[in-house]
């Protein structure tokens, strides 16, 4: 299998965590933002990464979107399962997954790119990096006002996740689900921001544990050694 990705994207991390949890062998092809459209649009009709190319007879040619990739992996390799045996719990896991994907992953992006452009500029002050950050900020309308709204959404997410993760090892049910993978991947960029890293130690402990369960290297800010 081949995963088309941006190496630093948290949505691509989510797809890699699904592949890693299932222990499916895959290669990655890192694309350059902007130029990626020429490669991806003809395959999926969309502009976004990740895209998985199973490269196996009888399987779809290309699967766009991290959620669809997780669904595909579950049918391709059912064990270990990412789906909960209880239908109501699995429905709840999908609801959380969708909220994390559509709302919280976006809020993370807003807060992260604001940080990288201002207080965290020294992480990579190079012209190329700052140009990419500036293009992303324009593309998504990231500014002080939209970042404040995103921060409020993150505070709400931390409340919801802390209730669930402090009661139980998993967000729903008694095993890892699509909800845990989504939360761990989509909040991981916040590990570089001291305000979050210091304010929510329990969150990053859980993010580390889930990365280990998924055989995925830890994200920047949480890497060992
Ligand atoms: N809901 C989508 C979101 C993917 C997404 O937003 N990907 C970003 C990278 S983090 C992207 O490809 N942006 C490029 C573009 O929109 O042109 C998923 O889960 O795959």
Automatic annotation (TrEMBL):
Keyword Transferase: yes
Xref: InterPro entries: Glutathione-S-Trfase_C_sf (IPR036282), Glutathione_S-Trfase_N (IPR004045), Thioredoxin-like_sf (IPR036249)
Gene3D superfamilies (alphabetical): 1.20.1050.10, Glutaredoxin (3.40.30.10)
One Pfam family hit: GST_N_3
Domain of life: Bacteria
Keywords, alphabetical: Transferase
Residue ranges occupied by any GST N-terminal domain in the UniProt entry: 1-81
An example molecular function term from Gene Ontology annotations: transferase activity
Protein name: Glutathione S-transferase family protein
Record organism: Anabaenopsis elenkinii CCIBt3563
